[in-house]
Amino acid sequence: MKSNDIRCVFLIVAMFMICSVQADDTKKIDARLVGNHFAFFNPVAGGGTQMWAVDIDNTGSYVAFCTNADVGGVRGRLEFTDDKWTLTNEGRQIDKGTIEILGQSITLRSGMGAMMLNRLHPESKQALLEELGIDPKKASIPPLLTRGLKIAREWRKDAILVDIRCTPGIDGGIDLTTQGGNLQFMYYSPSRDSGALAMVSAWGEISLTPQKDPVSPWKLAIPTNIIDVSAAVKIANQNGVKRVKDAELHGMGDDPDLRMYCWVMRTENGRICVDAIIPQVHGYEYFMNGAGRASGNLPFVPNSGMVYRVSVSSNREYYMYFYRAHAVFLDGVDEAIMIRVPWRYIKEDEWRPYVTEKDGAMMVPDLEDKLETGPYTKLTPEEFQRLSAGSSALLLDCPPKLVLMENCPTELIPRVKAQLESYWRAHGGTKRSNNP
Residue 91's pLDDT is what? Predict the structure, then answer.
């Protein structure tokens, strides 16, 4: 890009960029400017024409995104009187110029150039962005999942999300303002064996295009509580990946308890998979082979060995234990149900040297790398009793006898219990037990 082009890009950003705008709802802008626009900006200094998506609400709140250049989203407050316009920031004038309105065509001129607005829709779309809480230049995916399912189920009541495709930025955010779209959701209707492709616009709108046949080869419902692609990119970076070219999320595995949902990311050195439910890294071949996660009476153990530590404190006692986090997938439930399987109880003589008391309160330092997770260890009767006394405990009629749930809706507990017992009985769960 030439120096004049760069200067023009920054001029237009300076012209409209305002970090926070407090709109005066009592002062309405001319109705002819209100709405969603496609715009061209021609800088006075020359250079290529820039294409912008522009939205103006009835208070003059202005949001715009350049769709053909790497320029951040811009915001401002536009005021219009007669044939003059001004841009203000908290009452301070930033720029001014003249305006011409010919039918649906609007031209804003200033010393830096001319921006021609062509209104596509008479209503502003900024409210949807605020509702979703996303930045279209680096959007996150989770806020869009529930909205997408709602729209898809207006198409088919049994619609499920089976595939997500996107091109994340350096930080993992999704730029929704690029031409041609940058985020796709693919839905499937099991009853009709048909699919629908959804594109997400710069304003967070999800447009659904139904097809007679499936639009993706994958047919497992993706849970709504997945980790965002930005978190997956960060995990990939920590494992030596310098750049993620594109990412896709879908599920593998026939057994409900052996499903794997991974962000499959294409990198400069091939493909890497990051678990979208419990952050773990896998080889692409391992994921595509649908490798089972079961081992003994603890499911999912062969993966990368993610073990977490938790501290429990009450007026009566204080203790720690390690656990493995796992996901249970229930048909017809949009979220994966998260559970903990106790891995090893931490004896007091292990944690006591690192913990102090002050004014009757426990002071726990950072214990990372100080306590060893060690191998799976059977609970003693006392340890079993202590962990099973908590409100999150779920007792099973087969090994491992005890799991701890994480915010599981009460009405789903019987289904989780039945599915876990059925699974563990079928996978050698009688070999050993936590049951004293």
Answer: 72
